[in-house]
């Protein structure tokens, strides 16, 4: 799972649910909650700010740092959240 997160290009994001869906194709079963739990425990070594909730946001404690990283990468934003329509990415998709 962390390998998939590491492949998300700068300026793009996946929701927890999208990560779960992508992994389901390989492993047969996963959930957005499981993705969140793994990210909270082991996600510090990958671009964690590229995995967001379905509305394009982060948990309150991470929002300020994530926003700074999104701005640095040129991630499309809309009212302090990621513009999911413009920034969503799927494995295998070209830039």
Automatic annotation (TrEMBL):
It comes from the Bacteria. InterPro entries: ATL_DNA_repair, MethylDNA_cys_MeTrfase_DNA-bd, MethylDNA_cys_MeTrfase_DNAb, WH-like_DNA-bd_sf. Gene3D superfamilies: Winged helix-like DNA-binding domain superfamily/Winged helix DNA-binding domain. Residues 4-71 form the Methylated-DNA-[protein]-cysteine S-methyltransferase DNA binding domain. The keyword Metal-binding does not apply. Keywords: DNA damage. Pfam families: DNA_binding_1. This is Methylated-DNA-[protein]-cysteine S-methyltransferase DNA binding domain-containing protein.
């Amino acid at each position: 799972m962390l390998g998939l997160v590491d492949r998300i290009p700068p300026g793009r994001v996946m929701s927890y649910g999208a990560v779960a869906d992508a992994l389901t194709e390989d492993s047969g079963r996963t959930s957005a909650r499981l993705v969140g739990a793994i990210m909270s425990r082991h996600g510090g070594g990958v671009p964690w700010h590229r995995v967001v909730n379905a509305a394009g946001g982060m948990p309150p404690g991470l929002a300020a740092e994530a926003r700074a990283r999104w701005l640095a990468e040129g991630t499309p934003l809309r009212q302090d959240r990621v513009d999911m329509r413009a920034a969503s990415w799927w494995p295998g998709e070209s830039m």
